[in-house]
Amino acid sequence: MSKVVIMTKKKVIIIGGGIAGLCAGSYLQINGYDTEIFEMHDKSGGCCTSWTRKGYTFDGCIHFLYGTGESNAFYPLWKELIDIQGMEIVDFKEYSQIVKDGTILTLFADTEKLKRELLRIAPEDSVIIEEFINAIQEFDKIDMPIDVAPETLGMVELLKLLKDMKPYLNLQKKWNISVRDFVNKLTNPFLKEVLPASFEGEEMSLIAMITSFSAMNLKSAGYPIGGSLEFARKIEERYISLGGKLHFKQNVTQIIIDKNSAKGIILENGDEHHADIIISAADGYNTIFEMLEGKYIDKKIANYYKSLNLFRSLVQVSLGINRTFDNTPHSYSLFIDEPIIFEDNNKIERLELMIYNFDPTLAPAGKTTVTVSIETHNDEYWSNLRNEDRERYRAEKKKIAEEVIDRLDKFFGNIKSKVEVIDVATPATYIRYTNNWKGRYMGWMLTPKGLVTRMKKTLPGLKNFYLISQWATVGGGVPVGIMSGRNITQVICKKDKRKFVTS
Fold it and tell me: Which of 43, 239, 276, 371 has the most CB atoms around it within 10 Å of its CB?
C-alpha cells in the first residue's frame, strides 16, 4: 500500500500593503503559498494613494505609469494581475510645459515634436539635442528583460541575460550621466537653467529621462483614469480573490527572531503572528533599524542609509477649483516671479503643477482638481512642527496654500474666487500614513551611482526573511512594486524547488 504524502502550504507574512506587498502576495498565492498582509493604514496602496475632500479626489502618486501600452516591458506583468488592457488610459501629449519669464518650452511626448521644440529654443545646441533625441529613439527599440529575477539565474543564464541587455548597456555606458553633466554640455542659458529642475533634479541620471520620454513617445506611460488609489484597489481585489488575507490598522513593531531565523511579527497591540517566511514591503529604515533593531546589517547596508541620494520630500497643495482648464497642458513646471518663503527661510521659485482636466472622475462636472508639488529636504522641520506646535503647523500649511493660490491666480487668472477645497500634505503626512523614512514619497534616487547599485533582498545572517519595495531597489515608483513582488516570489519558488507560475 503506497503512502499518501500531504503537502502543507508554507505560510508567508508580508509587512506592508503597498503595491509591492500586494503584488508579492498575489504571486505567492498563485504559486501555492498561504499569505497574510499586515498594513498600518486603513487602506492598501501605501504611497500609491488618493484621498477625497468634498467631492474632489486628490492624487498623491501616479503622474504616469510605465506599462500602460504593449510596447513596454511592464505591460505583460500588469496583465498577469489586473485587466490593464480593459482600463481607460490617457496618453499625454506632453511630459510637461516649462514657463519662465514669459518663455514657454513644451516637453512633448512625441520625440520628433520634442526635437523641434528644443531646437526652436536652442538652435546653437543642435548637436547635443540630436544626440539626446537619438538616444530616446534607440531606447524605443530596446526590449528590457525584466521578467526574470537575476538571483534565480545560473552562470549560463546570466551570461545570456547580459547578452540580451547589451543594447541597453551600450546606451547606459554613454548616457548614465547626471542631468547636471548633461546641461553643462549645452550653451543655451534658458535650457541650462530650466532643465535640471524639470528633469527631476540635477543629480538624476539622464537615463531616467530617456526612459520616460521613450515610454511616453510609445504611448506606454499613460495615466489610469480614476487615479492612484483606484489602481491600487484593482491589485488588492486580485489579491483577495486569490485567497489572500489583508489586515488593516495593524502596525508591526517587531520581527520575531529565533536562532537568526525570522519566525513571525509582533504588532503594536502586542499580538503575535507566526509564519515560515517574513517579507517586509514596508519602509526599509524602519524594518532594518527598528523592527530588527539594526542587528542584521553590514557596512554596505549601513552606507546606503548614510550616503545614497534620496528623492526629496514633498509639500503637496491640492485644490478643488470651480472652473475648467480647457486646452491647457496637464503638467507645468512654473517658475514664479515672486518666490514663496516657507520653512522660515526656504525660498521656492518653481511650482510643479498637475491639472487633472483629463480625468472627469476626480472632480464634479465643470470643476477641476489641481495639485501643486513643492520639493523640500527639510522633513524634520515638518515633523517637529506637527509634534510640538500643532496650531503653528496648521497655520504654516494655510500660509503656503494661500501663497500658491496667489501665484496660480497671477498666472491663470480666475483662481482665487473659484477655490472650493484646500488640502495640504507635508512630509509629516507621509510619515503619519506610510512611516516612510524622512517622509520621502520615493526612496533611493536614480543617480548615475544609484543606477548601477544592486541591492540584495536578504539581510546578512538572517534566514527566512526578505526585504522588497522601493527601499530594496534604486529608482522607486509603482513599477518597482510589481517587479520586486514578482521577483521575490521567483526567488522563494526556486529555493523551495517549485516552478514559478503566473496563473
Answer: 239
pTM higher than the cut 0.90: yes
Q: Which of 408, 426, 425 is nearest to 417 (CA)?
A: 408
* Average pLDDT rounded to a whole number, residues 181-210: 92
pLDDT, position 153: 87
What's the CA gap between 343 and 43, in Å, rounded?
A: 30
Alpha carbons within 13 A on the beta-carbon side of 113:
13
pLDDT at 7 over 60: no
pLDDT at residue 385, rounded to an integer = 95
Phi, psi torsion values for 105, nearest 5 degrees: -125, 120
**Structural contact between residues 468 and 20, judged by C-beta atoms closer than 8 angstroms:** yes
Mind listing the pLDDT tens digit for each residue in 421-456?
A: 999 999 999 999 999 999 998 899 999 999 888 899
Nearest C-alpha neighbor of 469 from the set 207, 281, 278: 281
CB 450, CB 475: distance < 8 Å: yes
DSSP 500: -
Whole-number Å distance between alpha carbons of 19 and 483 = 10
**Mean pLDDT within 294-306:** 94
Rounded to the nearest 5 degrees, what angle is found at the Cα of 191, between the Cα atoms of 189 and 192?
A: 60
Q: Which pairs with CB-CB distance under 8 Å and at least 24 residues apart come from 93-97? A: 93/329, 94/329, 94/330, 94/331, 95/212, 95/213, 95/216, 95/331, 96/198, 96/329, 96/331, 96/332, 96/333, 97/329, 97/331, 97/332, 97/333
Backbone dihedral angles phi then psi of residue 360, each to the nearest 5 degrees: -70, -10
Confidence of residue 491 (pLDDT cuts 50, 70, 90): very high
Alpha carbon distance 51, 41 (integer Å): 13
Q: Does domain 11-46+226-308+444-495 have CATH number 3.40.50.12370?
A: no
Strands (E), 239-345: 245-247, 252-258, 261-267, 272-274, 277-280, 313-321, 331-342
Torsion angle defined by CA atoms of residues 290, 315, 357 and 61, in that order, rounded to the nearest 10 degrees: -10
Q: What's the Rg (C-alpha) of the chain?
A: 23
Sequence ranges of the domains in the chain: 11-46+226-308+444-495, 108-218, 313-437
Q: Say how many Å lie between the first and final Cα of the chain, rounded.
A: 35
- pLDDT, the chain, mean: 94
Report residue 249's pLDDT band, with 50, 70 and 90 as the boundaries: very high
Instruction: Give dist(CA 478, CA 403) in Å, integer.
Output: 31
